[in-house]
Amino acid sequence: MTERSFISIQDVSKHFGDVRAVDNVDLEIAKGEFFGLLGPSGCGKTTLLRMLAGFETPTSGEIFIDNEPSAAVPHFLRPVNMVFQNYAIFPHLNVFQNIAFGLRKDKLSKDELTRQVDTALEMIKLEGYGNRGAHELSGGQRQRVALARALVKKPKVLLLDEPLGALDKKLREQMQLELRDLQRELGITFVFVTHDQEEALTMSDRIAVMADGKVLEQGAPAKIYERPQTRFAADFLGSMNFIDGQIKGIDGDAYVIETDQLGTIKAPNTAQKFAEGEKLTIGLRPENIQISPRASKVQRENSVNAVVKTAAYLGDRAHIYVVLKDASEPVLVTMQNLEGAISNTLESNLDVAISWSDRSVLMLKNS
Amino acid sequence: MSANPEKSGPSWLGTYTVCYLIFIYLPVLLLPVFSFNDAIYVAFPMKGFTTRWWAELAQQDGLFEALKNSFLVAVPVSLVSTALGICSAKALTGYRLFGKQIFTGLFTLPLVIPFIILGISLLIAFNSYGLPLSLWSVGIGHVLICVPFSLFVLMSRLESFDHSIEEASLDLGETPWMTFWLVTFPVAMPGILASLLLTFTISFDEFLLAFFLTGNDSTLPIYIYSQLRFPAKLPAVLALGSAILVVTFIIVTIAERLRRQGDAQLGTGVE
């Protein structure tokens, strides 16, 4: 038998009638990995997760978990547990009974059962909450109980469907880190689904970006964010300025690209190959663009004159839209509002210059 | 009247409400009032206070026989129709059933067929198959009309609860069968109790079908109807009616409270 990854999703499709919810997906997930499935709603990420859980059967393709083909295994025997989007806490049971639910089959002694549930309560920092009814819990507490309920089963894989979607922003940020720490501590493989790019970036070891049932690209958060290969992923994660261009030639290690808005620019040679004369899309992250006064003597790598259209104040940072000479789409620039920074003095119709480094220029294939 | 003019409706609304309530409840309230009136005829002015009609009631053998028959029918009917209601409601609220709308319509159709038509049809059916008329045939007729009520109560219960709790149970290693008993059934329990009480009351009170389908045994409503031929027995019937009224009122109140308690539990359960 050939060596497979811990979770191996091989050419899996799921059709609902005419709809291809999941379309020929291949994914390999390693043991102990925190893996994020990221995509907009309806991209098939939840269907993929539900196939891992055994709630849906693939129309075609195979899923292996720990080298076992999972199609033959009924869901109640799978070494996989799930944390549901709305937590699915049993409303008629208290916290203790909820957590003990999955241990019923193990025929544990009363002491052992209590010990295991207490350990789980300790893990989620809800000691002494055993007798609380499900309706007496806050959103964050429900989330923790759902987590403990799944983890007492000691699954090989924990699936999480939008685990933090129902929580408010502060709590979500706190839980992101807690989940992350918990996963590291337990060493269990976590696969989670989210539409929130920030959540995916914060928690995952690796991310798969999905759209229309397909996995567009996968990799470590920094790689996906900084070196996206597709326009969709570049747009979905964070913000991105897109500029049309055409390859003029290759100069040593760099491509030379002709654009209407920015003139002739250079971009580093990457894995993707482009032919001379090929049309492509240039991506520039708003945080990689600097704004300086037009009269500045500071010499920068690339510099283009622009006019400020709007400057939006967001507290810790500012969003500034500038218009280039040909004035098609405005370009977004984000900057930190540091004390004494130029961002505090920008206002509409001010003449400025924008600059960027060659390294920050992304080349994206036109599909 | 409310001091806040924005919150009170048009002025005639209060008057209308009072008239409406009188229209509904006054006739019903006359029943217990006249059951204590010291006269055979039900008419004003009232003659004086007596409990002899209630005493007379306790001595009628036919009454207790009919009461027993009614229980013999209503208890199994409530159990059977609620069991059928659970099965159908479970199927109709599940998310993948072909022709869900059509089935819901078919199941609830008996509600809109006039009971007299239903009674005659069943009578013809029983006769043509040579089935003897008895409390059994009454019971079958009652199940027919009780299932839709049970279905409505249970469907509203099952629809409002989140099916992911059933999936969670499967995910935690339970079989579909145990999931039903450990999760679906207990969560639907308030609805099931409400359905039992409601169908019991319907069967207990039902006259038309029972009248058509019974053999020699009479249920309570039939017994009451037969007593109305004798003017002297009317006050005792009023006493009986009052007793039924009170018991029914208590049962329905309990059923409704159970239903609401359940909803409250679910309401906070699924945020």
Describe the structure in your own words.
The complex is a heterodimer of chains A (367) and B (271). The relative contact order of chain A is 0.11. In chain A, a hairpin with a 2-residue loop joins strand 11 and strand 12 (254-259). Chain A has a six-stranded mixed beta sheet, sandwiched between helices. Chain A has a five-stranded antiparallel beta sheet with strand order 13-12-11-14-20. Chain A is globular and about 80 Å long. Chain A is 22% helix and 35% strand. Chain A is an alpha+beta fold and 367 residues long. In chain A, helix 3 crosses helix 4. Chain A has two domains: 7-234, Rossmann fold, CATH 3.40.50.300; 241-365, OB fold (Dihydrolipoamide Acetyltransferase, E2P) (Beta Barrel). By secondary structure, chain B is mainly α. Chain B has a single domain (53-269), classed as MetI-like fold (Orthogonal Bundle), CATH 1.10.3720.10. Helix content of chain B is 75%, strand content 0%. Chain B has eleven helices and no strands. In chain B, helix 2 (52-58) packs across helix 11 and helix 3 packs across helix 10. The radius of gyration of chain B is 23 Å and the shape is globular. Mean pLDDT of chain B is 82; it is low at 267-271. The chains are: A alpha+beta (367), B mainly alpha (271). Chains A and B meet through strand 6 and helix 4 of A and helix 7, helix 8 and helix 11 of B.
Query: What distance lies between the first and last C-alpha atoms of chain A, to the nearest angstrom?
Result: 38 Å
Instruction: Give the overall shape of chain B.
Output: globular
Quick one: CATH class of chain B? Mainly Alpha
CATH superfamily of the largest domain in chain A: P-loop containing nucleotide triphosphate hydrolases
Q: Largest interface: which pair?
A: A-B, 28 and 24 residues
Task: Write down the CATH topology of chain B.
Answer: MetI-like fold
Q: Report the portion of residues of chain B in β strands.
A: under 5%
Kindly report the CATH topology of the largest domain in chain A: Rossmann fold
Q: Tell me what the CATH architecture of chain B is.
A: Orthogonal Bundle
Class by alpha and beta content of chain A: alpha+beta
- The number of strands of chain B is 0
Described by strand count, sense and barrel closure, the largest sheet of chain A is:
6 strands, mixed
Biggest pleated-sheet summary of chain B = none
- If strands are numbered along the chain, what order do they take across the biggest sheet of chain A? 6-7-8-3-9-10
Question: Average pLDDT of chain B, to the nearest integer?
Answer: 82
